């Protein structure tokens, strides 16, 4: 996906294809909450129509080598939960564990209501953005498939998403 450059012809009323540059997002309409089996999650306070830009997955940009080091280090101190805060971004990763927006609280689902798309902003920087994959009602948890997260070092984990097509085990 490519965002319009600053020289966009649609100046009257503002260009609607400058999501990142204009920082258009719904963070104000989202809330963090605690789930029974999946730690913290993120839900919407308003209805979100299909194909709506929800926000950017922000964090520290790190290399593959640094991601592997952090995964090994973090695995040692995590006893019960597996927490994924890194997302693939071409040859790099976005690590939202310590420096990220509330988008880091979106959990996995086998039947997700959001998708991640790589978006090139008007200044040619690559971003990971979340969009609604279907209509989402107020109070509903936002989810996406971790398959798009590219955790090639994780073979499987217990899945507690509760969707009708969930097998109970997520396999990457």
Describe this structure in words.
InterPro entries: Post-SET_dom, SET2_Histone-Lys_MeTrsfase, SET_dom, SET_dom_sf. It is a single chain. The protein is mostly beta strands. The protein has one domain: SET domain (Beta-clip-like), CATH 2.170.270. It contains one helix and twelve strands; from the N terminus they run ββββαββββββββ. Strand 1 and strand 2 form a beta hairpin. It is globular and about 50 Å long.
**Level-2 CATH architecture:** Beta Complex
Secondary structure: number of strands? 12
> What helical percentage do the residues reach?
under 10%
Write down the overall mean pLDDT: 79
Which residue ranges are poorly predicted, with pLDDT under 50 across at least 5 consecutive positions?
Answer: none
Instruction: Using the CA coordinates, give the radius of gyration.
Output: 17 Å
Question: What is the CATH superfamily?
Answer: SET domain
Q: Distance between the terminal alpha carbons, to the nearest Å?
A: 25 Å
| Strand coverage percent | 25-35%
Helices, by number, come to: 1
| CATH fold-level label | Beta-clip-like
Bulk shape: globular
Domain SET: 28-147
Domain Post-SET: 155-171
Keywords: Chromosome, Methyltransferase, Nucleus, S-adenosyl-L-methionine, Transferase
Organism: Panagrolaimus davidi
Give the structure's gist in a few sentences:
With 172 residues, the protein is mainly beta. The protein has one helix at 64-77; strands at residues 30-34, 40-44, 53-56, 60-63, 86-89, 92-95, 107-108, 114-120, 126-132, 143-144, 156-158, 169-171.
Set down the secondary structure blueprint.
Elements: E1 30-34, E2 40-44, E3 53-56, E4 60-63, H1 64-77, E5 86-89, E6 92-95, E7 107-108, E8 114-120, E9 126-132, E10 143-144, E11 156-158, E12 169-171
Parallel strand pairs: 7-10
Antiparallel strand pairs: 1-2, 3-9, 4-6, 5-6, 8-9, 11-12
Protein name: SET domain-containing protein
InterPro entries: Post-SET_dom, SET2_Histone-Lys_MeTrsfase, SET_dom, SET_dom_sf
Subcellular location: Chromosome; Nucleus
